[in-house]
Amino acid sequence: MTRARTPYDGVALCAPVTVAYQRYSDQSAHWWAGRAMRGLAESTGFGPVDIDGFCFASFSAMPDTAVGLVQHLGLSPRWLDHIPTGGASGVMALRRAARAVQCGDADVVACVAADTNHLDSFRHTLATFSRFSQDAVYPYGFGGPNATFALITDAYMRAYGVTREDFGKLCVAQRRNARSNPSALQRGELTLDDYLRARPISDPVHLFDCVMPCAGAEAFIVTTPEIAARHGLGVARILATIERHNAYPDDPVQLRGGWAMDGESLWAMAGVAPADVDTLQAYDDYPVIVAMQLEDLGFCAKGRAAEFIRATRFEIDGDLPLNTNGGQLSLGQAGAAGGFQNVTEGLRQVLRQPLGAQVPDADIAAISGFGLVNYDRGVCTAAAIIEACR
Amino acid sequence: MSHEKRDPLARLKERHVPPGMRSRAMQAMAARAAMGRFVLQGCVDCGAVTYPPRDVCPRCWGELRWADHGRGAQVLSVTTIRVSTDLYFRGQLPWRMGTVALDAGPVALAHLHAGLTAGDQAEMRLMLDRGGNAALFALPAGKEPDMSDRQWREFVVPVKGRTILVSDARGAIGRALVQALLAAGAGHIVAGLAPPARIADLSDSLLGMERVQSVPLDLTDPVMVAECMSKIPGPLDIVINTARLVRGGGVSADGNLVEQRRMLDVAVLGLMRLVQASAPLLQGRPSAAFVDILSAQALAGDAAFAGYAAGEAARHALLQSFRHEMRATGVRVLSVFTGPSDDEDHQSVPPPKVAPARLAREIITALETGREVSCVGDVAVDAMDRWLADPALYTRERNL
User: Fold this and answer.
1) Which residues in A lie closer than 8 A to residue B25 (C-beta atoms)?
2) Is residue B15 assigned to a domain?
3) Which domain of life, per UniProt (chain B) (predicted)?
4) Does the CB of A133 have a partner CB in chain B at under 8 Å?
5) Each residue of B322-359: pLDDT tens digit?
6) Structural domain that includes position B344
7) What is the ipTM of this complex?
8) In CATH, what number is assigned to the domain containing residue A321?
9) Which residues lie below 8 Å from residue A102, measured CB to CB, with a gap of 6+?
10) Which terminus of chain B has fewer Cβ atoms in its 10 Å neighbourhood, N or C?
11) Of the partner residues A139, A146, A158, the one whose CB lies closest to the CB of residue B19
């Protein structure tokens, strides 16, 4: 019944760019996007005329969409996409751009996520986020995503016996990873004790379970191996991707994501298994979502995240190097760029061009995205497996 | 009661209301919540019940209709919010809310009564929040809400210990109300008495009660309205407008214009005078309300009481606008519809009639359940049902 998926032959992923984050910025999303384009140009030599595909994600470029950005940035692409899925946008940009390049609709696609963070941006972004949020979430204490994920975390901890110590171990490991990354906004030492003693934000979510909103931009290029070779760029190939939206709508509380629905097809297409993965870049808006991805992507069985976390080292030199740039919990969450940093970091590690420490012998990266709390849960999930071409 | 000593330069506590943006579908839910109903949308085609409000059925893309549903629910998960960027909730922290599975099917976020935890059975109430928008509140199943519950008090108007102005305490309804408010534990009742003062007032046992203060009040006299407010010791929490003058008569005949003018002055401009004098006082209070009693004749006119019905209809319209004005202040504006009351004004009207004591009890219930629109007695309930079902038909049959 299931049709075989066409492999991503003839597609190259290259040129990961991160524009160093800032807690607050007086610049616009357009400026941050411009810095990302400049970063792409510097690492590839591509100018405006070379880029014939453009894919954009942002929460703060209003009133503009990808269309406005095209004119603002002086591009004349023959392929254009705007991805509104936040934390899932990086993988989605990658897989859309890959098919466009593979089919000849574009040769060089710049995938860019950029968001600014003014002093009061977070409150404004929240207030107008979605209709269901306005109608049925904000009136209940206006706790923002912290409250939504507190409810998910509360149910998840009781369902599967995961403890704060388990979540703490993930956060502490990610902070250790961040310490070698000069562009992470939070690089101070974090002990398990610090984590456990942090002030409660929305029980059981405490301070170090939460990401810090910030400004930043991320970008990468999807093109053909031939074009990449002509420009002397190191590339990775895409082994497999998945995406899913509004998975399991009848689950009363989100205890699993769309990865659980599509994980098998991901590994079947990739031809590798979770054990073959050298580094996992999982979406980490809250550690409960990281735990969910470990289960739903098959790194451990459903309901076994606690055991798995206790038995695994997640540092850069560990058993499963996780969020090796520190993840959003240490980098900061630069809006939609938070949904791209998993792609750029996974790509950097397999290309052996890290911002901080290098995962030893990294060839295969698993990248996972999760986006958009429209009502009581994240709606969009996506994942990709990439491998360096050497 | 002693006069309050206040620092005139003290910074007053600002009153905020919860975030107010809502979809049109959610406004429809609020319109039903205002009447105390617990409603959800169901699909006309497949029967699926849905929440949050949508514009189309998520199962079959069929048409959705509002319908009443069972109030049962189970609490699935709970959080205590300790940080918020919203000014209203910042003033209320910490705030407990949770996810509940409604017996009707959908999952909803809800405010939680103290003591409710994950796994508990709950009974849902569809309330109006401080901004006048619909909100789900979960109460412990089978128990009455605790009026001292800090979160519940944001959705209701407690009577106990509060200062309440009754604009006409001499009529049958006003007297019954003063009695009922005393029994409900009101702290101080300001009883408006239209001049001329009567010898009998001096020996009236009700007006002589310790917690009752008689004040001359005629809503047609702006000076007297202002003076009445100045005589209230301490902050005013609730105003209940009981003043009315009921006279029959049609439009082209039987209408004594002197009577009609006085009647409209009390009903329409009198309401505006009372509102203009009291609203600034109410706005500073943590849980304030203005209650008006309306005849169900306000909905569709009444050929036998044409002028009176016109005055009631005018007040009905004024209350909608007043409610809009108070939305940003958190002051609740309650409309209590009633049929003919069993008093001297309705001697010519056959039963069923509403006993003043019943009306008084229902006004207190409206306050303590935060119900914006109530209908008291069979006549008012029947009128509202018919009007909601088919306003054009109801208007015809009331004036045949």
Assistant:
1) 135
2) no
3) Bacteria
4) no
5) 999 999 999 999 999 999 888 888 888 888 899 999 99
6) 163-398
7) 0.93
8) 3.40.47.10
9) A6, A8, A9, A10, A11
10) C
11) A139
